[in-house]
Amino acid sequence: MRRQISCSWILPLFAALLCLAACRDKGTVTAEETSAAAVAPALTAQQTAPAPGETGSFDGQRAFQYVSDLVAIGPRTAGTDGNHRAQDYIIGQLKGFGCPVDPEAFHTPTPLGEMDMRNIVVKISGTSSDIVLFLTHYDTKRLPNFVGADDGGSSTGVMLELARLLCARKSALTFWIAFLDGEEAFNLQWNNPDNTYGSRELAARMALSGDLPHTKAVILADMIGSQNLRIKRDTSSTSWLTDLVWSTASRLGYGNVFVSSETSVQDDHVPFLSRSVPAVDIIDLEIPYWHTPQDTLDKLSPNSLAVVGHVLIALVPQLEQKFARPTAATRP
Ligand SMILES: [Zn+2]
Fold it and tell me: What's the predicted TM-score (pTM) here?
């Protein structure tokens, strides 16, 4: 996973105390945790979502079902059979929605040796060739019994549902949705370059193809399924884009989920930020089960998926209004 850059702004003593209490090295999993079986208890009655008509046509129950299907595959660590089955599942769903799907294989060195990975990229052409890129990662951290219902699963379920809606929509902008491999570090700790393999590959390819200068915004979601979802503003994200997401959430009545306090996160948006592409990370990193075998389906809420999905789908026309230029054919 990613780590917070947090605490560097606090006096060292307070930083140490605060980090002991709050930051934790969540990449470290105890022996007791690793020996626990990752068996998800039965779902509870509260795991329902509002009707799609209340959330901009975004169906939180469908998104939850996609997460459930992914979790049923088991661990999805890059380079494993489970990862390949997750790819097959994602591609199958996208093709079922009628989406144009581009599986982009790549080969990369890792601490475990050379490895084949694959980003799955949906490219929905709009009237304008300017691109808004949505991101999620589908791989899971290499930990025993770790199925990543929230970490890797929740955002992938949301992006699948977003793809279902956008692939059926005539859009003024070109929308890409990338399902990224290899976000997680293979080592326990998050040390560069052992992380964000898929997003670094995608950003590099888009630079080479010439698509990157046309990319107006990158919107990353990661760990957005918790029942007590609380998303802080990431200070490394682009300000205007963060403002747009948070003001949209506020307008929709989700000010209690998209809160005004701040955090700082390293994640799949970094390779785009470092290439000067505006990017925002929508993430709740303060979940008690992060990088433990307890990251299971019973921790998730379809309502939380619906809240984030509603915000994402509501951003679409706003981004079109902001960026879509009339083509020569439609200009007066
Ligand atoms: Zn993670």
Answer: 0.87
For residue 321, report the distance from its CA to the centre of ligand 1, in Å: 34
17 falls within a domain: no
190 Cα to the center of ligand 1, angstroms = 10
What residues make up the domain containing 142?
A: 58-323
Residue 298 has pLDDT above 50, yes or no: yes
Is 106 within 8 Å of 172 (Cβ atoms)?
Answer: no
Identify the CATH number of the domain in which residue 290 sits: 3.40.630.10
Number of domains making up the chain: 1
For the stretch 188-220, pLDDT in tens is 999 999 999 999 999 999 999 999 999 999 999
In a domain, 229, yes or no: yes
How far apart are the CA of 292 and the centre of ligand 1, in A?
10
From ligand 1's centre to the CA of 192, what distance in Å? 15
Residue 223 CA to ligand 1 centre (angstroms)? 8
Residue 33 lies in a domain: no
Q: Which residues contact 23 (CB under 8 A, 6 or more apart)?
A: 4, 6, 7
| pLDDT tens-digit series, residues 268-290 | 999 999 999 999 999 999 999 99
Estimate the crossing angle of helix 302-323 against helix 155-166, to 10 degrees: 50
Q: Give the DSSP letter string of 187-255.
A: SSS--TTSS-HHHHHHHHHHHHHT-GGGEEEEEEEES--BTT--EEEETTS-HHHHHHHHHHHHHTT-T
Q: What is the pLDDT of residue 311?
A: 98
160 assigned to some structural domain = yes
Please report the pLDDT score of residue 19 as a whole number. Answer: 36
For a pLDDT cut of 90, what percent of the chain falls above it? 83
